[in-house]
Write a structure and sequence with these properties.
The chain contains no helices and 28 strands. The protein is flat, with a radius of gyration of 24 Å.
């Protein structure tokens, strides 16, 4: 399915929008990518195409980007969904709503959240203090300051009452309960029966976690891929990770950052850095002797360290 490409825009009272009728131009040729949103100005929100023509007039208190042919908009302090012609497909009767991601939609009716289908029928009654849309068939809901997960029938798959809960990504979700972090699978079981002082989401199929011995990395089965040994660790990106190897200094005042591969092997011979950033477009920013430069993926200094500050290289077009 093609993405609808409109941008949402807010206008001040001093700007009178021109009257434009929606043409038969195909969706693919119109506007700004639907997963982006133009800045809001003033009080009225609407939608424009790439030529700046109004395709949905600025009539709304708030307007979000289009997803799957529908955009969430707020009018008279109530939320609903419109189509690309500005017609209501789900009326503005809700206090809050999540974006329409083509399945069940989390909506707030009064003080409680529930779930409606694409025809605006309640499938799961509004009974939650907070709720998010489904990912991989499961959704996070909150009651009495505690989080759990339900399936699309509204059945709880966990009864753990987590302090924090994050969406499922590739069949695993990061959770916090009491003083420990971990991951659960889609059956609600704790991954590897492992509990951590801290844990971050999986990146490049490894998750960085912290235990008493330091930071290390686990794989998607919950087993150690790189044993805990580092003072600090960052996410892997294209097979390369960055770690801080000593706790004797702050993160930026000594040469203690290194690059490693997925076995934990140190890359780039004996190079240590005061600060090391992730690789982007074939280079990485590194700080040596108080100045920034760039190395390539072989660890070679391709731009000498002579800058006070710098940003990653980005394509011009």
């Amino acid at each position: 399915m093609a993405w609808q490409e409109y941008g949402s825009l807010h206008c001040g009272d001093s700007l009178t929008p021109p009257e434009k009728k929606l043409s038969n131009t195909s969706i693919e040729k119109l506007g700004i990518s639907t997963n982006r949103q133009l800045p809001f100005y003033g009080e009225a929100g609407g939608f424009i195409d790439k030529q700046g023509n109004w395709v949905v007039q600025p009539l709304y208190d708030e307007a979000r980007s289009f997803y799957f042919g529908q955009a969430a908009v707020c009018l008279d302090k109530k939320w609903g969904f419109i189509n690309i012609k500005g017609e209501w497909v789900i009326p503005n009767v809700y206090n809050e709503i999540r974006n329409n991601t083509s399945g069940l939609i989390a909506v707030k009716k009064g003080k409680k959240w529930g779930y409606i289908d694409q025809q605006n029928n309640f499938v799961i009654a509004a009974a939650f203090d907070e709720a998010y849309n489904f990912t991989e068939g499961l959704a996070r809901i909150k009651n009495n300051e505690r989080w759990d997960y339900i399936n699309t029938s509204g059945i709880f798959i966990t009864q753990s009452k987590f302090d924090k809960a994050f969406p499922f990504i590739n069949h695993l979700a990061r959770i916090k309960k009491d003083s420990w972090w971990g991951f659960i699978d889609t059956s609600g079981f704790l991954l590897g029966n492992q509990k951590f002082f801290n844990a971050e989401d999986f990146a490049d199929n490894l998750a960085r976690v912290n235990v008493s011995k330091g930071w290390g990395y686990i794989d998607r089965t919950g087993q150690w891929a790189i044993e805990p040994q580092f003072y600090y660790a960052t996410d892997f990106n294209n097979g390369i990770g960055r770690v801080k190897v000593s706790s004797t200094a702050s993160r930026t005042d000594r040469d203690e950052w290194i690059y490693i591969d997925k076995t934990g092997k140190k890359l780039f011979a004996n190079q240590y850095f005061e600060k090391a950033e992730k690789f982007s477009n074939g280079t990485a920013r590194v700080k040596v002797n108080g100045s920034w430069g760039f190395i390539n993926e072989k660890g070679e200094l391709v731009v000498p360290n002579r800058f006070e500050r710098c940003l990653d290289f980005k394509p011009v077009n």
